[in-house]
Amino acid sequence: MKKSLSIAIACFSSLLALGCGDSGASDDLAGCAPPAPTSDAGAAPSPRDASSGGNVQDASNATPGLDAEAPAATDGGGASSSSPVPNVDAAAPPMADAGAGAANPNPGPSPGPSPTPPGGKRIVGYYTSWSVYGRNFQPADVAANLLTHVNYAFANVNAQGQCVLGDPYADVDKFYPGDSWDTNALRGAIHQWHLVRQRSPHLKLMLSVGGWTWSRHFSDAALTPASRASFAQSCVALAARYGFDGLDIDWEYPVGGGDSSTISRPEDKRNFTLLLQALRTEATAQTARDGKTYLLSVALGGSPQLLGNLELAAAAQALDWLNLMTYDYHGGWEAQTGFNAPFAKGTGDTFVHADTWNVSAAVQYTLAQGVPAAKIQPGVPFYGRGWSGVGPANNGLYQPSSGLPAGSWEPGIFDYKDLVANYLPTMARYWDASAQVPYLYDPVRRLFISYDDPQSLRVKADQVNALGLGGIMFWELSGDTVQKHLLTALKERLNP
């Protein structure tokens, strides 16, 4: 198995060196999305980190870990091209399904889920409950035909260690046209997702639990057999009550590395596995009650330090798949620019964890721990991270900065649609041949932005195909353009 994976990696690296990782299409996307707002007034607090990405890895707190062998550099061309290269993108897909449909207080379950789409890969996108506020990105705006699974984020874990709705108003009470005001009628974004699934019955809806801010009580919930059983029963009951197809556990993070308010213990490493086993047991019991199959996935950190705090092979036995949050490797918490989600180590990157803090290394580490390839899903960001006050050396890459730019909704964070509409037309785009990701730099504004685009997503999707991985996860749906350029790039590579 290890030998066959090495051969696949070598073949994949050769394809990239020959330029096969990119379709070669070149489209000018300027103006394809409206200017992004600069604030999100009225939105509920995001239960993730400042970017809503959730995988912030602080070098000052990182501990040494086992480094997986990453694929060899795919191009010896240095840290960046010597001049800007054209923006590369995919053609726009069909528009999303239209219309909210009639209210249905009892939507019932969707058809029985399948862990892997027949003949294809999983494409799993997060949808945030706060998207219904200032972002005004509703479930009906999603191009369901391009997805296989949606992770609805987030349910909370209360002080009693039980799953509860995260934002009851957005989740089940917000009124949409066609909804009912009857006392027991289901409304809100969850009901809207049931209407989407009626039009797109292939789509599976997962309830994501936790996130960066709402992971505080996971350790307590996982501590004893009784607490694990209580957590599992509450989560499965919540998913069944609201017609979800499964659960996605987003504990950030077992043992340590999460928000300062998050409780953590050394015992979390073992208890995380036991918690997942309790969830699987309860999901099986729920299947016996209602005849529906329930899926179970997790969102995991993308570094050896965070992954090393887990019993990956044992945990994987209870799961249908594992989502790796292979992004937020660098960001505004650092004074030096870097790549948000490099595919591989960038030439010239002197960061202490540069060899292992990238997509390829995270995938290889997870494989080396005995997780089946078909259960592994690397994550990609539909947003970028930026720095201000960046000097012109090396076109701003790996350079000191003096602060953060305004961003789309918060400092230093840019939706991809905002970049397309307001930054790509005026900034120089560079392609890093070693890290296999683009970046933007403006020497006048001294602005540097690391991001992913259709070209880099095709590279990452090609790795999924070459290694037989299960698919790709991304954070999150509202960041894409109206024309769904990023999602289309994934669909065309993974499920053509």
Beta percentage is: 15-25%
What is the rounded distance between the termini?
27 Å
CATH topology term of the domain at 48-58 and 96-381 and 455-478 and 486-494: TIM Barrel
The CATH class of the domain at 48-58 and 96-381 and 455-478 and 486-494 turns out to be Alpha Beta
Structural class: alpha/beta
Q: What general outline do the C-alpha atoms trace?
A: globular
Q: Please name the CATH architecture of the domain at 48-58 and 96-381 and 455-478 and 486-494.
A: Alpha-Beta Barrel
Describe this structure in words.
By secondary structure, this protein is α/β, with parallel strands linked by helices. It has a domain at 48-58 and 96-381 and 455-478 and 486-494: TIM Barrel, CATH 3.20.20.80. The protein is 26% helix and 16% strand. The protein has twelve helices and 14 strands. A hairpin with a 4-residue loop joins strand 12 (437-442) and strand 13 (447-450). Helix 1 (2-17) runs antiparallel to helix 11. The protein starts with a helix and ends with a helix. The relative contact order is 0.18. Residues 1-114 have low confidence and may be disordered.
